[in-house]
């Protein structure tokens, strides 16, 4: 044990010393990179050392470059593990045997490789029947006549029976005068051209390629198909037509021209599978050659199967199978399409199979290097795709799936790239990658051009008005890209695979247009009514440019509501009917069909923003004044300025009550019935945490949670809008219900508290939202005075609670304190006249009275306005008196007064506290819809609920700050209160 430990220690010590000394260094673990092609003619590539090694004397590298062979005229002496040795043949025996180990005299000349040469039709014999090498080679002729019928084989060392087609045409191994030799066979005369077009035109690159595969196989395959009915040859001919994109032209000797000639000439053979387009012995490539057939194939009959999302009859599995052929036309297998059979992009099996769940909008895209494509697809495979109609019984039926090849040309025109189905030519067979037809000279060379199916889309269209999940036959749309091979290591190709589901959206669009037209017309009438009401409230009978502008502003808000109602209804319709349906009756609009819907949402937001800004501007410029009812209590001695003698004057009235009311009004300017922070947080919680956002994915699943390992389909903008608006409106509505039913009743009602505060403070509020229309809050104290001490205040409140004093209403024995008021032009003129000096103070300097003191002007105007309005409320002005009445039901509904105040002002009883319309509080519907549209517009643009929520909250704060700042400024200017006291 001790000895072993000592040995390990010594080995580690020696290794440490070697490393420190540099004997072992990192350089020992790096080697130069060499390739077989980089070795010279006298070197071969050693597959062990991965380097070029020099061959021995008289040797050169072989064809693949991984070993050495003797030079021409030299024979191999030994090759038993030691370095091979080669010796030159003597002059008497210059020929080298084919095995390379012996020298021999040749009866004729020598080939380029030093072996003996024989004439055509003869074989070279170098050994006798016992295997002994002859001194001189013999050229033995093969007998091509009856009864032997032999010819030399391909290596030229045996006589073998010639191909039967030669014997049948000439009773010999020579193709008779009535036959045509092609591809190693002799074919009888036929209607096919004697020469064929082996050049392939790659239209995207405008490059013709002389295809060695077509040159070797096109004519022989066509001839064998026509004359011998050889099934593999017919399939090979069809494959070559597919490799030329099924293009049809006037040229009759290209692949598709030959196929169509054979198709027409074999009409007597009839069709197979009772399909007129499928000729016996031939592959099925076309759905006829007449325009207009595409619509008949795709939409004449429904697919004989139905799909269901839910229930016992649930059927969402799309089952495709394909008959697979190789390039030579041999049938390989039936293959179930799935797990990437048609998908070149790599992914997990679960994600790849998600493509074949009906109703799931699937799209997969990637970028693959050309080097990988060349390595994985040395030979193309061809697919005839069918849909499996098996219903669980033993009998299995297949439905042929048509193909729309976007690269197909008809007389030089890409007829399948337009939207007109009458020009389409549908085909059947497809391939994914063609690295064969673009090879020149030899088949082992790298192809000059390859074709790759870069876009594959499978489309299903639901039958209109179906209730049983019926669909029309699916359509495979495929687009190929020509790739010129220059540097495969750096070249890449973009690929995509997609499944989409369509239905006729014209009926839904017509219904949306009708809804927009009808509601839009009603919006015009309602806007005209509001404009007429506004004209009456400003006491202006003229229709001028301002009237037109006001109408447009009203109409913007009403039209926004129309767009909002239609879009929300549309979003909820698709959300409910698509996600909740059992048998498939509707599928979602395609992304390009959603553009009109997104436009409607954008219009709704833009118009609602105009309405919101209009209301905001009106609020921050509203006329407001606080009427102080407090009267002096007693007199005080006060010395006049410049005089020593004191005089008796009325005791001053405290201004702090007015400041206090003004501050409370300032605070309630932006209160809302919902909490913006809670609104944003709750919406984000339900969308992202609970998982309601998953309802917006383009698949039939209604689950809130998704496995991240599964495929996640793209978003539907309509569903995303429907989910977002539903969440925002529902949470906002619940907040408003909670605020109205519970919070305002049991916790705090700031609007009613403000009205109570006015009564306690002995202060009334006059609001004029328009020139001759506004609101009045009667705050005259029933106790006569509010500027008192605590004991008297508590006593007054107790008396009021016990009904020992009068009621707070404007009229005797009433409690109504809030009114809508319609004032006369005369009253408004008097109101403006009192404020005129203050307006001039803010005007041009040339209009100002230099001797006037601004503070004194402000104080004088305040007292004048206070006395005037107080006397007006007390009916002190007969020429400006008022009456109190109730509004008619229709007047309240349409928001318009039928009676215009000509001689007397009108006070309308208002128990609903509608003065809140000049606050955020009374415009909650507008604010809620604006916030909803702002959130949705940001989300539709970014598809990020979190970002939309953050920006919406920031927007709310910004506009709240603007409303507070300008509202505070307006409050100070209109109430003549120094804004320093508004805190």
Helix content: 25-40%
Mean pLDDT: 88
Shape: elongated
Largest sheet: 6 strands, mixed
Number of helices in the DSSP assignment: 21
Count all strands and give the number.
37
In terms of structural class, how would the helical and strand content be classed? alpha+beta
Describe the structure.
Residues 1-9 and 21-27 have low confidence and may be disordered. Helix content is 36%, strand content 19%. The chain has 21 helices and 37 strands. The strands form 13 sheets. Strands 21, 24, 26, 27, 28 and 29 form a six-stranded mixed sheet that branches. It has 983 residues and is α+β, with helices and mostly antiparallel strands.
Quick overview of this protein structure:
By secondary structure, this protein is an alpha+beta fold.
Compile the SSE list and pairings.
Elements: H1 2-21, E1 43-46, E2 51-54, E3 59-61, E4 68-70, E5 74-78, E6 85-88, E7 95-96, E8 103-104, E9 122-127, E10 133-141, E11 150-152, E12 159-161, H2 164-170, E13 179-182, E14 185-188, E15 199-202, E16 207-210, H3 212-228, H4 231-243, H5 255-265, E17 271-272, E18 275-279, H6 293-299, E19 320-326, E20 331-337, H7 349-353, E21 362-369, H8 370-376, E22 381-388, E23 398-400, E24 403-405, E25 429-431, E26 433-434, E27 449-461, E28 475-484, E29 492-502, H9 506-537, H10 545-579, H11 595-620, E30 623-628, E31 635-639, E32 646-650, H12 656-667, H13 676-690, H14 717-746, H15 750-761, E33 763-770, E34 773-777, H16 790-801, E35 818-822, H17 825-841, H18 854-873, E36 882-885, H19 889-894, E37 905-909, H20 924-942, H21 945-975
Parallel strand pairs: 24-28, 27-29, 36-37
Antiparallel strand pairs: 1-2, 3-4, 5-6, 7-8, 9-10, 11-12, 13-14, 15-16, 17-18, 19-20, 19-22, 21-29, 22-23, 22-25, 26-27, 27-28, 30-33, 31-32, 33-34, 34-35, 35-37
């Amino acid at each position: 044990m001790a000895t072993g430990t000592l040995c390990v220690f010594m080995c580690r010590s020696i290794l440490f010393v070697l490393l420190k000394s540099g004997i072992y260094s990192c350089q020992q673990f790096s080697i130069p990179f060499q390739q077989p092609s980089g070795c010279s003619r006298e070197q071969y590539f050693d597959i062990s050392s991965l380097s070029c090694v020099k061959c021995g004397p008289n040797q050169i590298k072989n064809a693949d470059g991984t070993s050495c062979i003797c030079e021409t005229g030299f024979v191999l002496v030994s090759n038993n593990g030691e370095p091979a040795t080669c010796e030159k043949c003597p002059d008497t025996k210059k020929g080298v045997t084919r095995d390379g180990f012996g020298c021999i005299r040749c009866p004729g000349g020598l080939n380029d490789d030093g072996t003996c040469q024989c004439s055509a039709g003869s074989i070279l014999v170098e050994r006798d029947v016992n295997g002994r090498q002859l001194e001189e080679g013999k050229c033995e002729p093969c007998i091509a006549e009856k009864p032997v019928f032999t010819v030399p084989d391909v290596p030229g060392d045996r006589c073998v029976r010639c191909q039967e087609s030669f014997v049948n045409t000439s009773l010999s191994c020579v193709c008779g005068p009535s036959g045509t030799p092609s591809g190693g066979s002799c074919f009888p005369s036929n209607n096919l051209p004697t020469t064929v077009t082996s050049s392939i035109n790659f239209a995207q690159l405008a490059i013709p390629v002389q295809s060695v595969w077509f040159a070797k196989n096109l004519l022989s395959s066509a001839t064998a198909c026509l004359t011998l009915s050889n099934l593999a040859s017919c399939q090979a001919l069809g494959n070559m037509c597919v490799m030329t994109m099924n293009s049809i032209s006037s040229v009759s000797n290209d692949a598709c021209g030959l196929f169509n000639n054979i198709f027409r000439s074999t009409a007597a053979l009839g069709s197979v599978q009772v399909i007129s387009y499928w000729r016996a012995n031939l592959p099925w490539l076309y759905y006829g050659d007449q325009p207009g057939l595409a619509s008949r194939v795709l939409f004449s009959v429904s697919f004989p199967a139905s799909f269901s999302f839910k229930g016992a009859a649930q059927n969402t599995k799309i089952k495709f199978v394909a008959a697979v052929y190789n390039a030579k036309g041999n049938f390989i297998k039936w293959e179930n399409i799935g797990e990437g059979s048609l998908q070149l992009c790599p992914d997990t099996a679960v994600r790849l199979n998600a493509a074949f769940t009906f109703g799931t909008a699937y799209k997969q895209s990637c970028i693959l290097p050309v080097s990988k494509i060349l390595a994985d697809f040395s030979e193309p495979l061809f697919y005839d795709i069918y849909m499996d109609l098996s219903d669980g019984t033993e009998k299995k039926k297949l439905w042929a799936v048509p193909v729309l090849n976007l690269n197909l040309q008809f007389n030089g025109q890409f007829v399948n790239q337009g939207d007109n189905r009458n020009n389409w030519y549908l085909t059947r067979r497809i391939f994914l990658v063609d690295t064969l037809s673009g090879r020149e000279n030899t088949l082992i060379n790298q192809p000059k051009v390859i074709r790759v199916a870069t876009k594959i889309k499978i489309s299903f269209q639901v039958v209109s008005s179906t209730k049983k999940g019926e669909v029309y036959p699916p359509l495979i749309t495929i687009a190929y890209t020509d790739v010129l091979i220059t540097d495969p290591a750096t070249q890449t190709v973009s690929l995509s695979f997609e499944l989409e589901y369509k239905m006729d959206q014209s009926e839904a669009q017509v219904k949306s247009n009708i809804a927009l037209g009808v509601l839009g017309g009603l919006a015009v009438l309602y806007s005209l009514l509001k404009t007429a009401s506004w004209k009456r409230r400003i006491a202006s009978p003229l229709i001028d440019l301002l009237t037109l502008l006001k109408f447009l502003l009203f109409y913007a808000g009403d039209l926004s509501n129309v767009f909002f109602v239609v879009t929300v209804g549309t979003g909820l319709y698709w959300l409910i009917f698509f996600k909740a349906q059992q048998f498939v009756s509707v599928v979602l609009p395609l992304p390009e069909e959603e553009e009109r819907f997104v436009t409607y949402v954008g219009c709704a937001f833009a118009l609602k923003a105009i309405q919101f800004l209009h209301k905001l501007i009106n609020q921050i410029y509203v006329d407001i004044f606080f009427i102080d009812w407090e009267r002096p209590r007693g007199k005080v001695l006060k010395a006049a300025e410049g005089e020593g003698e004191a005089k008796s004057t009325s005791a001053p009235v405290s201004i702090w009550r007015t400041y206090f009311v003004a501050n409370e009004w300032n605070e309630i300017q932006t209160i809302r019935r919902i909490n913006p922070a809670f609104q944003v947080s709750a919406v984000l919680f339900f969308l992202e945490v609970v998982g309601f956002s998953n309802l917006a994915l383009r698949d039939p699943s209604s689950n809130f949670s998704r496995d991240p390992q599964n495929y996640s389909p793209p978003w539907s903008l309509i569903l995303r809008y429907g989910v977002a608006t539903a969440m925002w409106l529902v949470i906002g509505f619940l907040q408003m219900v909670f605020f109205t039913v519970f919070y305002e009743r049991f916790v705090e009602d700031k609007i009613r508290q403000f009205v109570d505060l006015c009564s306690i403070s002995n202060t009334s509020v006059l609001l004029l939202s328009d020139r001759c229309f506004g609101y009045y809050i009667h705050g005259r104290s029933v106790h006569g005075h509010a500027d008192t001490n605590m004991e008297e205040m508590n006593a007054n409140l107790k008396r009021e609670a016990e009904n020992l004093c009068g009621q707070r209403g404007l009229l005797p024995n009433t409690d109504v304190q809030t009114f809508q008021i319609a004032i006369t032009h005369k009253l408004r003129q008097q109101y403006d006249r009192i404020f005129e000096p203050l307006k001039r103070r803010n005007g041009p300097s040339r209009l100002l009275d230099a001797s006037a003191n601004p503070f004194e002007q402000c104080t004088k105007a305040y007292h004048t306005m206070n006395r005037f309005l107080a006397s007006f409320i007390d009916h002190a002005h007969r020429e400006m008196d008022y009456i109190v009445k109730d509004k008619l039901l229709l007047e309240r509904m349409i928001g318009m007064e039928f009676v215009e105040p000509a001689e007397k002002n009108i006070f309308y009883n208002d128990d609903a506290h509608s003065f809140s319309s000049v606050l955020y509080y009374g415009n909650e519907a507008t604010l809620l819809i604006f916030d909803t549209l702002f959130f949705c517009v940001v989300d539709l643009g970014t598809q990020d609920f979190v970002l939309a929520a953050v920006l919406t909250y920031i927007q709310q704060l910004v506009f709240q700050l603007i409303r507070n700042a300008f509202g505070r400024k307006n409050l100070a200017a209109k109430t003549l209160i120094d804004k320093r006291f508004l805190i």
